[in-house]
Design goal:
The protein is mainly α. 51% of the residues lie in helices and 5% in strands.
Length: 271
């Protein structure tokens, strides 16, 4: 495919994904712009829940972006054809199709890890080689009885053995994801940029937090008093205590959730 045809394809893909006019999408792909919009999910572009601290609307979207970055990286550095990397991609994609990897539920404490390692004598329970990874035997339970020490090879073999062929619908979904977000030379979204995202996400997250603190200041409250509070706590304070009407800021008569609440007014400012 010539560079001109590739550029047109990338522009069409971007226009279909973002709703931008084709000419604008063409200019942005030509400049290498990375699509990102404040307070919208960095992966699916839907509105991020108001009480969500991060830049994604869900753990699934965060894991999707992480998978895309890994996939793009191994495609471009030539490792995508290696058996272990192919398995890693298949495993990541399988987790996405199943609704995401329950990372929080499977996180183990150092004490539990040490207990399993000592119990299994530092050896893979399957082949007897030096152990490398703690495996959940079934489900997400962190109980030591559900954990075992495996070497990397046996862990990979177990994972591969549990793989099932994707349905036609799932295969089409994966193909579309590859075409839209892995294949284009210029990352379609900022969160897909395997290099740029690492440099920028902390600043973007900090800026999102600052916008919330700015709302507090607009309401006449001291943001410094809330710097240790979560977004949900700050939003509760704003919604419970303030409301907006034609006379200005007043006590909120509708418990903070009605059409005249401060928060409703503040969120409408950008419409």
């Amino acid at each position: 495919m010539t560079s001109s045809k590739r550029a047109k394809r990338d522009a069409r893909d971007r226009a279909a994904r973002t709703g931008e006019p084709y000419t604008l999408a063409r200019r942005r792909t030509a400049r290498g712009d990375r699509y990102f919009e404040d307070d919208r999910c960095a992966s699916c572009l839907q509105q991020v829940p108001d009480d969500e601290e991060g830049l994604f609307c869900s753990e699934l979207c965060s894991q999707t972006a992480s998978t895309i970055r890994y996939w793009r990286r191994v495609v471009r550095d030539g490792r995508a054809g290696q058996p272990d990397v192919r398995l890693a991609i298949r495993t990541r994609v399988a987790h996405l199709l199943a609704g995401g990897y329950h990372e929080g539920a499977r996180r183990l404490s150092p004490a539990v890890r040490a207990q399993v390692w000592e119990r299994d004598g530092g050896r893979c329970v399957s082949c007897g080689q030096p152990g490398a990874e703690i495996d959940h035997i079934a489900g997400d339970s962190p109980d030591p009885g559900n954990l075992q020490l495996l070497c990397a090879g046996c862990h990979q073999a177990k994972t591969a053995g549990r793989m099932r062929p994707a349905s036609p619908g799932q295969a089409a979904e994966v193909a579309a994801l590859y075409k839209a977000r892995v294949q284009p030379e210029a990352p379609a979204l900022l969160c897909d940029d395997e290099q740029g995202w690492v440099r920028q996400w902390r600043g973007l997250k900090k800026a999102r937090r600052q916008r919330l603190l700015d709302l507090l200041e607009e309401a006449g409250l001291d943001p410094g008093e809330f710097r240790g509070a979560s977004r949900a706590e700050i939003l509760d304070i704003i919604e419970d205590e303030m409301a907006y009407d034609d006379g200005g800021w007043t006590e909120d008569d509708d418990t903070g959730y009605g059409p005249y609440s401060y928060f409703a007014h503040a969120m409408a400012k950008d419409d």
